[in-house]
Amino acid sequence: MSAPGGFRRVWSMPLLLATLTLFGLLAALLGEGWWWPLSWIALGSPLLVAGWCLMPQDRQR
Amino acid sequence: MLNTRQIRAWYQVHKWTSLVCTAFLLMLCLTGLPLIFHDEIDGWLNPEAQALDLPASVPDEDLDAIVAQARQYRRGEYLRFLDWDDERPHVLSLAFTTDADSDDFSRAHFMAVDARTGQLLGEDRPAGGFIAFVFELHVRMFAGLPGELFLGLMGLLFAVAIVSGVVVYGPFMRKQAFGVVRRDRSPRLKWLDLHNLLGIVTVAWALVVGLTGVMNTLATPLFGLWAMRTLPPLVAPYRGQAAPMQEQFGSLQKAVESARAALPENEVTSITFPTANLGSPWHYLIWTKGRTPLTSKLLTPVLVDVLNGRRQTAAAPNYIRALKLSRPLHFGDYGGLPLKLIWALLDLVTIAVLGSGLYLWLARRRSAPQDVTAWADVAVAEKSA
């Protein structure tokens, strides 16, 4: 078994991004109006997180 | 928790499913990129005629008058299809072919007509050239239905590669913080970290687009199944009767009003004229869709007898509904231009995941056995856990 918190440390960000992605995919499909910008933000979040991680370390704050 | 042997097995699954499908997936991602924007590209390469500038109070012209007028332009041809254009308000698009039952619409004549005057606005050319070429490549690699189904199989392998990739991601990351890219060690390690980061952040999107793509490859067989199971019982009483001639067809306007009355919560979107091929020789096939964001993606056809106006509806079975809903989720065309741009960026990230995965495999084969390998990384992560 992994140490307590091991699962959370590895999977919290992937699970958060997967949830946001699915929310974004469905928000634009089922909703109109304000749901669209919400969908763009949610679906854009994996790109933002990846972009953040790929920035040079000294600029990450 | 997975033991070393299980991790190794999952890793093998990830490696082999990826290796088989990567070349095709790279092709799909590259051709998919322009297809996301096909409406914009088509509109730019081939500007379409727009509706007349008329006051909002002008009502729609009687459909029978419009159809009679359009048939005058294309005497000797068959009107096959009429479509209320989603993108162009007040524009009706009509398709004529020289053969009443041909399903080859590549040489059809498309005509744009103003819905309020019946005036001919222009001849629309079917989408051709660059986009049509890219589309053929993306959908079936110019290999017909076998090509389509083959790409569906590659999509399934892609889904297995994604799932197995997620399984091995866990052990890889146990000793490492999320998103750290180790740039100062070997290039292989840097690309491995990149592969893991870009792969895990896009995993849900890639899985949804991959599986809805697989669903789309089944469109031809599923529509065929629907036509085979739904239409024959409806038209069974007509079997043996001669197909009515175009001149005998009853009022289209009345048929459309009848369809609207049958499904008041729906709007009529298009009409398939009587045909022996994917339709009925005895009916107007009137397609309706719902008015909410969700139901507007689902179609319900109404059959109206062209001679006596008798009406029958044919609700779509669940597999057709699933197929219809899988289309926007694959195309990314349902949330405005920003959604398309995000779709394109996620597609580019997927290309990077595929490319880095390929690099990791090639670099491993080239490098000396003592060099760090993906498998060794797994083993190290496992031992130190």
Calculate Rg of chain A over CA atoms.
Answer: 15 Å
Kindly name the structural category of chain A.
Answer: mainly alpha
How many separate structural domains of chain B? 2
Number of DSSP-assigned strands of chain A: 0
> How many strand elements of chain B?
8
Written overview of the protein:
The complex is a heterodimer of chains A (61) and B (385). With 61 residues, chain A is an all-alpha fold. Helices cover 74% and strands 0% of the residues of chain A. In chain A, helix 1 runs antiparallel to helix 2 (35-54). In chain A, 30% of the residues are buried. In chain B, strands 4-3-2-1-5-6-7-8 form an eight-stranded antiparallel beta sheet, with helices on one face. The model of chain B is unreliable at 368-372 (pLDDT under 50). Helix content of chain B is 54%, strand content 12%. Chain B starts with a helix and ends with a helix. Chain B has helices at 4-36, 38-45, 63-73, 129-140, 144-173, 187-201, 203-217, 219-235, 252-262, 318-331, 336-366, 374-384, and strands spanning 78-84, 91-97, 109-114, 120-124, 267-272, 283-289, 299-305, 311-313. Chain B folds into two domains: 4-39 and 146-197 and 338-384, no CATH class; 52-126 and 245-306, no CATH class. Chains A and B meet through helix 1 and helix 2 of A and helix 5, helix 6, helix 7, helix 10 and helix 11 of B.
